[in-house]
Specification:
alpha/beta, binds 2-phosphoglycolic acid
């Protein structure tokens, strides 16, 4: 059985107001009546999440909301943090974890592992980001990705794999300063590589339901090739998720190739 495809929007620290956030979300919301086979997840800044849950906005059930990060405790003396449990109580279903921009601020695989476990225990689907900073000729980057996958998923049960999304986002392909986009072939190789790491540990069956998606300069123009040649289970979209027209384009292309 083929897994459902998933398209995730990572708004990052954008936009600056609730009004603008609502405009983006409504722009996406009004044109998804034809979407049946693709999961859509929007991850705006955390402070706007509860407003987006407001019934007056009439956001379709087809859109799930996600956070861009969580803390690993449930409650307590952790100034400035938001827990998976709090988000789950608000009806949030996903959280991006271990994004390279957070790793750059000092998040380790060990910390991300705690967050993954905390998310799973609150029924929040972790969107675990992995990806190397550079591609060296000795292929050392493969060991780097392997360590990220193994250490971030240390101690999880094999049944949890179906409840996790892994986003392969090579750091060099992210954002407006990207050196270049990854090629669909590069993504396909890493997807197989991650599946192999996890099937050695959990068995091939457990890995079947795991979705591995591509992120890093995803645009409507490269969406199809990542689906067809890259065999991607979907996308983690940064910049183009802030533009409803482009994001809907990515969703529609994904839907027609599901
Ligand atoms: P980008 O960001 O699509 O703007 O490259 C992707 C991401 O960082 O998730």
């Amino acid at each position: 059985m083929l897994n459902r495809k998933i398209v995730i929007g990572n708004f990052k620290m954008n936009p600056v107001s609730l009004k603008e956030t609502e405009n983006i979300v409504s722009g996406i919301n009004k044109s998804i009546s034809n979407i049946k086979k693709t999961d859509i997840v929007l991850c705006p800044p955390v402070l706007f999440l509860s407003n987006l849950k407001n019934k007056k906005l009439k956001i379709s059930k087809k859109i799930s909301l996600g956070a861009q990060n969580i803390f690993f405790g449930d409650t307590g003396a952790f100034t400035g943090e938001v827990s998976a449990k709090m988000l789950a109580n608000l009806g949030i279903n996903y959280s991006i974890l271990g994004h390279s921009e957070r790793r750059e601020m000092g998040e380790s695989n060990d910390l991300i592992n705690k967050k993954v476990k905390s998310a799973l225990s609150s029924r929040i689907t972790p969107i675990l980001c992995v990806g190397e900073k550079d591609r060296d000729v000795d292929h050392e980057y493969l060991n780097f990705i392997k360590a990220q996958v193994e250490e971030c998923l240390l101690g999880i049960s094999k049944n949890s794999l179906a409840k996790i999304v892994i986003a392969y986002e090579p750091v060099w392909a992210i954002g407006s300063n990207a050196t270049r986009e990854a090629t669909p072939e590069e993504f396909r190789e890493i997807r197989i590589f991650i599946k192999k790491i996890l099937s050695d540990k959990f068995g091939a069956k457990a890995v079947e339901a795991l979705r591995i998606i591509y992120g890093g300069s995803v645009h409507p123009e490269n969406t199809l090739s990542f689906l067809k040649e890259g065999h991607s289970d979907g996308f983690l979209v940064g910049r183009d998720s802030l533009n409803p027209k482009k994001f809907l384009n990515i969703i529609n292309i994904t839907e027609s190739n599901s």
